[in-house]
Amino acid sequence: MSITERLAINTAIFDGHDLKTSLKTISKLGVQYVEFAFNQGYVGQLDSDMFSKNHAQYLLTLLEKESLQSNALGCTMNLAAPNAIAEFKMRIDFANHLGVRFLNTCTGPIADRQVIVDNLKILAPYAEDLGCVICIENGGDLNFNAFATAHDGIRILQEVGHPALALNFDPGNSVSLVPNLSPSEEAKIAMPFCRHFHVKDVQVHDDKFTFPALGDGIVNFTPIIESLAMRKMPFSIEKPLRMYRRKDSFPIRGRSPESIQIIADTLEQSVSFIKNIENQ
């Protein structure tokens, strides 16, 4: 199977645009999969209606119209929040309604690490019962620094000790949260423990981190894409184009969405970059 046949587009890049337009744009790229993004603080206001069975059915109707599929859900939230277990179970139920297997989520602050581990010990069996896998993701800012390095994530997996918990690694997040480490080396360490993977390039400015098309940033994606090509795991281009991170890593969401043309051009360049590495 070609690596691009496992590629999805995460809808965070379309933040501010309607889903019909977003999915039509993805379909024109020739990409088969969509990762819907429901990440707290990154894609606008979320409420319980967004995770209802009716909304899942609506999304499935939109996917069918564009001949697209989904096998992953972006659902980052603070896994140590007082209501985290109930809130994340709602997301697992939603994934089940969508027929989605992988739930990708960053974790929470390192001060609450033990609470996160304890909550995951409850959530992982619940996910397994519904045929899902929770894939914890390395954070890109200090709100989610309980899992900053690849070894941090591996240790959480070992402490929880459940097959329905795995990693979803994002080398682009390493750039802002652990700038002293090599994103490609971190990806190499994490990949054997991953069931899903995110690709996001980063440009570093004097006062912020931004997210260009793949190949236009500082992450060496050639060995990462080559490793993904040898594995069967799904992966997605996860690029919150409307957002940037300050020098201290905290995310800032822009007031206005990017234009569909800029989004489409960025995605087209990124998909071509992946194909070129695969065909070398």
TrEMBL record:
InterPro entries reported in the protein's UniProt record: IolE/XylAMocC-like (IPR050312), Xyl_isomerase-like_sf (IPR036237), Xyl_isomerase-like_TIM-brl (IPR013022)
Keyword set, alphabetical order: Isomerase
Entry annotated with the keyword Acyltransferase: no
Limits of the Xylose isomerase-like TIM barrel domain: 25-238
Single GO term (MF): isomerase activity
The organism's place on the tree of life at top rank: Bacteria
Protein name (database record): Sugar phosphate isomerase/epimerase
